Amino acid sequence: xxxxxxxxxxxxxxxxxxxxxxxxxxxxxxxxxxxxxxxxxxxxxxxxxxxxxxxxxxxxxxxxxxxxxxxxxxxxxxxxxxxxxxxxxxxxxxxxxxxxxxxxxxxxxxxxxxxxxxxxxxxxxxxxxxxxxxxxxxxxxxxxxxxxxxxxxxxxxxxxxxxxxx
Amino acid sequence: xxxxxxxxxxxxxxxxxxxxxxxxxxxxxxxxxxxxxxxxxxxxxxxxxxxxxxxxxxxxxxxxxxxxxxxxxxxxxxxxxxxxxxxxxxxxxxxxxxxxxxxxxxxxxxxxxxxxxxxxxxxxxxxxxxxxxxxxxxxxxxxxxxxxxxxxxxxxxxxxxxxxxxxxxxxxxxxxxxxxxxxxxxxxxxxxxxxxxxxxxxxxxxxxxxxxxxxxxxxxxxxxxxxxxxxxxxxxxxxxxxxxxxxxxxxxxxxxxxxxxxxxxxxxxxxxxxxxxxxxxxxxxxxxxxxxxxxxxxxxxxxxxxxxxxxxxxxxxxxxxxxxxxxxxxxxxxxxxxxxxxxxxxxxxxxxxxxxxxxxxxxxxxxxxxxxxxxxxxxxxxxxxxxxxxxxxxxxxxxxxxxxxxxxxxxxxxxxxxxxxxxxxxxxxxxxxxxxxxxxxxxxxxxxxxxxxxxxxxxxxxxxxxxxxxxxxxxxxxxxxxxxxxxxxxxxxxxxxxxxxxxxxxxxxxxxxxxxxxxxxxxxxxxxxxxxxxxxxx
Lengths: 166, 538
What we know:
Oligomer: heterodimer
Strand content of chain A: under 5%
Helix content of chain B: 55-70%
Largest interface: A-B, 60 and 83 residues
Number of helices of chain B: 21
Largest sheet of chain A: 2 strands, parallel
Strand order of the largest sheet of chain A: 1-2
Strand order of the largest sheet of chain B: 1-3-2
């Protein structure tokens, strides 16, 4: 040692602890168990707030979704899937008077009556999901009507009786 | 900023605004101010996406722009402001405790949207509150307005800088970006709005209202074409004011723990009186006379003047120095030593961490070093009454984790080791910074782990959401109990258990993030107050 080890408290003749040959383990064993998390109404409420905020922000127009990646094969269902807004338009209306001119970008016109009003939280957060899922289902139903649901299938083949039916 | 802070910023932006905003935001946090074209080329993102991201960042007060001398605009993002996203639930909850559900929703809407005009906030909040009320009842706009005014008066919300009023002929060339200004005296002044109306419920399937709806819709269309009376005046949440409130809360509860309820009420009164007269990073409040404090005590507290004086003397004499006496006029002038209080809180946090991590004997050595400032190895053993070998072991453990440091005092000019004192000491500021860094890392790890757990169970979560959607639609159309049960059984019992345990894990991690943020707030407040104090010194 370059200095007198007695000064830092290592006595004469005492062996030093073994030197470290590798980085410390990723999850070193803990000597003492950590104190349990705080509990109580306040903590529970803030937890609920946090999770709802996260969920809500994912659905706001400020959440910029990346452009859908190009799929390998063009699939039939792609035509009917609702994909996010693409590229050069945003879904909210900033005050352009307070922004630099170079940032001006096209604002997509919202269809009337489609503004989603967040339902305030209560203890039943299931109701939020229900409303949103009902909306989703309404959308789905509308799209489903585009599909040929097979009602016309039987009618066609009645005319060609001489063809073999498989 | 440290790597840990940048990483945490990145995760927060990604969770709340998506990957594109995250990419641009992280780039700007890392590199400082950049013009638009540099952002596009350095991040490899399309111009439109960059524009979108910048609009979002500026809208949410996370980023700003500045016009440079050569005429181009530079954009920047504040790391510390992004980190405040972690604290959003706390702001909203505090607004609830102070101003009820109305206050809670006002602050929530402002945080979700960044900036909003008052008229828009009032309308939206009234609608949301109406949804929760019984059928037939609605929330009046005036009630929401009043709460908004109270929030503005107490500085919890403030006006955003705006475009200055155009005076005189406009220049031939419009500037590339408006320079936004706000006058100090206007920051909390509420515009005179005549908001009359009630909240509206979302349209339910009532056939009777159809005729009314058409008429209302036409009227709304006409109204929406005129600009609202407070056009151009935007409001944002004043995070500094909330931080001041949290700090005051921490000080009051510390006094309550250390002394008693009455002392803490006195301190609370003093802080309340100093709310709007003290700037957020002042080292101490304005001096308050004992007479003033006596007059301002809350109505329920009828302690005598002399008792109050005794309490004040006790508080001022306390070694923690939360309250200091600055003069004798007016029955005694007292100040709250904000900087010292924050230092005590940070130190208490350090002590608690040492105790939980290394044990109570290490904590004893730590507290000893805090008290005595510098001690030699031998002195530590003697004062702490711990055998030499164990004391040495504990000191080295704390030294290796940077809670404790060594100070060399040479006896001779040649700094020969055999003739040098080695003293152990605790550098509170350095240890606090180290712990703060560790906290940022912890939260980042927690978020990563939470995202991992959610990703691992993605398939199951999607299945569960689909089942819930089907159940909801079936219930809405009035299905039978048997059919509902059939659908519920689509999720098997082990799957249900897996979902339960996932929910438990995610809740635990979220709660941990909230709790670590409380520590971050305390430690960061202390570090920030020392920086300001250092700058102020002549």
